[in-house]
Amino acid sequence: MLATLYAKALDAERQRPILGDVWARDAVASIDYDWTKTTITDRTSPSVTTRSLHFDIWARQFLACHDRAVVLHLGAGLDSRVYRLDPGPGIEWYDVDYPSIMELREQIYPSRPHYHRIAASVTDPGWLDQIPADRPVLALGEGLTMYLTESDGIALLRRIVAHFPSGELQFDAFNRFGIRSQWVNSVVRRSGSTLHWGIDGPGEIVAAVPGARLLAWVSPFESESFRDVSREYRVMARVMSWVPALKTMAQYHRYTF
Ligand SMILES: C[S@@+](CC[C@H](N)C(=O)[O-])C[C@H]1O[C@@H](n2cnc3c(N)ncnc32)[C@H](O)[C@@H]1O
């Protein structure tokens, strides 16, 4: 989550930012850390910022249709989405991540009305009990699913669908090829993380999560957030799109229930 935060901070310094996350910029400035350890550079930052912009767009669409709802921002890390989207007073927003991350968040970001921090593993079945179950939910997990095991991830999605009357599930995923080749991902390698869950298509989610219906399944290269990337990035995307396993190595999923 330091890597994604740093990517957003570098982007915010650009003349023409993709995401323009000034909260990330200020957060990075306030943390004494050798950010080069993340291996993120200005050149590679769009791999993060286009994804964050994509989920900001989808989340905004949900919020535009629901003025009274719950947002579960799963594996929120140090992401400033609640400040970027600035939801209205009818939205109860919950950032969920491990206790150590939540402690750090508390030091970096101000509190705000209708905003809650949940210090827990998303795979812990207990924390959902404290969330109001009487309104629609947006459950959004960016950069999360690959860190979960398949059984934990599916159990989490099922619990959310069972808890709320209706809502949306929005998350990105790697395909199995992306999981198998995780050793080429320098950010993952340097962080010491291990990736587990690969998803090869939305049929796997629809089959495993009763009630979930597909709204969209998008390659990052087809996302409108990719519009403003450099020519170099566009050429790389075109080449990767010729190979199906590379085209869907990363995917954006959106379901309704
Ligand atoms: C790659 S970071 C993404 C952070 C943020 N969503 C973003 O896009 O900047 C992955 C995040 O998922 C969190 N995470 C991974 N497994 C988790 C779990 N079981 N429960 C809660 N958070 C988890 C990590 O702590 C980390 O903050």
TrEMBL record:
GO MF terms held by the record = methyltransferase activity
Under InterPro entries, the record lists:
Ppm1/Ppm2/Tcmp (IPR007213), SAM-dependent_MTases_sf (IPR029063), TcmP-like (IPR016874)
GO biological process terms, semicolon-separated:
methylation
Q: Which UniProt keywords apply?
A: Methyltransferase, Transferase
What Gene3D superfamilies does the record tag this protein with?
Vaccinia Virus protein VP39
Q: Is Methyltransferase one of the keywords?
A: yes
Q: Which domain of life is it from?
A: Bacteria
What is the protein name given in its UniProt record? Class I SAM-dependent methyltransferase
Species for this entry:
Mycolicibacterium sphagni
Taxonomic lineage is: Bacteria, Bacillati, Actinomycetota, Actinomycetes, Mycobacteriales
